[in-house]
């Protein structure tokens, strides 16, 4: 099962809105086939593992391990439970049951009715954590929310913005940390900022320093203050604006969603309707504090460096004890789980 979970991790950022799933086929204590769900619309982990078995006659005497309950419904691919039954695999070991109402318990029930021996709950905690985005989306009816910011040694997240046509960005973190953030972006369905961050920094919010998918860009802009010459309007990357009133003449691949009453909770409700499974929040201060105040966050990733500035914007008030701390290249990364 550890191998299943390790394989499943390979699909991170590529399977939305599907879960991360890994599977292995074991014959006489040897893995004879393995696979994972590689991207949305492609074969599921069980199908890839079974396909990877060279001698199919061993399947009828093997055990199939899978990190999430096999599906039993037709989607973009046929049901995995049917494939397991068709290949007469006698024993199936599952880590987590699927929270999706289309699946939950039904795949297991079908396997049992077909005579399969089914064992459930092996490394469940680890498998549930791997699919925390998928579980949060289905159980809480909202995206999995990750807060991210960087702060100086004296707890500032940015200097006071100077009024200039070409403002320079003050980087708190080093190049390695910034590249890591771009990797994180590629792993989530969307990235979100408040409109003041767009006005101050004119960000691209892309994965340009990492070979990965660009997330959907989301801007909280209740009063339509996004500058028309901002970089978000200059490319073809999908961007969604949450507003109180319609924005006129949006460029290609830019959309808007009118939220009423306008609040974080309702924004997340709209994201759920749009099947946005996870969001990384990258600022600014007011936006971060809104999610913290409403307790609508699941994970926070906070960089802390030795840099200091005399005055600026203070970091969010965040009275939590970190669950995990990493130190590298002279910078500290604290990770919190809510």
General description of the model:
There is one protein chain. The longest helix is centred in the middle third of the chain and has 13 residues, at 175-187. The chain has 338 residues and is an alpha/beta fold. The strands form three sheets. A nine-stranded mixed sheet has the order 11-10-9-8-12-6-13-16-15. It has a five-stranded mixed sheet with strand order 2-1-3-4-5. 25% of the residues lie in helices and 25% in strands. It is elongated, with a radius of gyration of 23 Å. It has ten helices and 16 strands.
Q: pLDDT average, as an integer?
A: 94
Major β-sheet annotation = 9 strands, mixed
User: Strand arrangement, largest sheet?
Assistant: 11-10-9-8-12-6-13-16-15
> N-to-C SSE series?
HEEHEHEHEHHEEHEHEEEHEHEEEE
Tell me the Rg in angstroms.
23 Å
Instruction: Report the portion of residues in β strands.
Output: 25-35%
Number of helices: 10
Rounded to the nearest angstrom, the distance between the terminal CA atoms is 26 Å
Q: Count the beta strands.
A: 16
Indicate the overall shape: elongated
SSE-based structural type: alpha/beta
Low-confidence stretches: none
- How much helix is in the residues? 10-25%
Summarize this structure as a short list of keywords or feature phrases.
338 residues, alpha/beta, 10 helices, 16 strands, 25% helix
């Amino acid at each position: 099962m550890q191998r299943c979970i390790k394989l499943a991790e390979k699909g991170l950022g590529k399977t939305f809105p599907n879960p991360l799933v890994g599977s292995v086929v074991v014959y006489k204590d040897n893995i004879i086939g393995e696979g994972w769900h590689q991207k949305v619309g492609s074969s599921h982990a069980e199908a890839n593992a079974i396909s990877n078995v060279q001698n199919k006659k061993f399947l009828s005497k093997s055990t199939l391990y899978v990190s999430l309950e096999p599906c039993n419904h037709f989607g973009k691919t046929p049901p995995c439970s049917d494939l397991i039954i068709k290949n007469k695999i006698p024993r199936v070991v599952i880590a987590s049951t699927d929270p999706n109402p289309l699946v939950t318990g039904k795949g297991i029930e079908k396997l049992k009715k077909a005579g399969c021996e089914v064992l459930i709950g092996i490394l469940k905690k680890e498998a549930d954590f791997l699919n925390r985005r998928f579980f949060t989306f289905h159980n809480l009816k909202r995206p999995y929310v990750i807060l991210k910011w960087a702060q100086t040694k004296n707890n500032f997240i940015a200097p006071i913005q100077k009024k200039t046509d070409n403002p320079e960005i003050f980087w708190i973190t080093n190049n390695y940390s910034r590249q890591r953030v771009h990797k994180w972006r590629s792993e989530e369905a969307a990235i979100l900022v408040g409109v003041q961050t767009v006005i101050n920094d004119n960000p691209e919010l892309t994965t340009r320093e990492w070979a990965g998918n660009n997330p959907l860009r989301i801007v909280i802009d209740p009063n339509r203050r996004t500058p028309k010459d901002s970089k978000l309007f200059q490319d073809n990357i999908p961007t969604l604006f949450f507003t109180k009133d319609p924005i006129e003449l949006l460029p290609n691949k830019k959309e808007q969603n009118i939220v009423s009453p306008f609040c974080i909770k309702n924004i997340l409700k709209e994201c759920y309707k749009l099947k946005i499974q996870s969001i990384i929040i990258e600022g600014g201060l007011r936006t971060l504090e809104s999610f913290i105040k409403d307790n609508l966050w699941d994970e926070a990733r906070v960089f802390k460096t030795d840099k200091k500035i005399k005055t600026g914007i203070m970091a969010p008030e965040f009275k939590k004890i970190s669950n995990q701390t990493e130190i590298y290249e002279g910078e500290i990364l604290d990770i919190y789980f809510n």
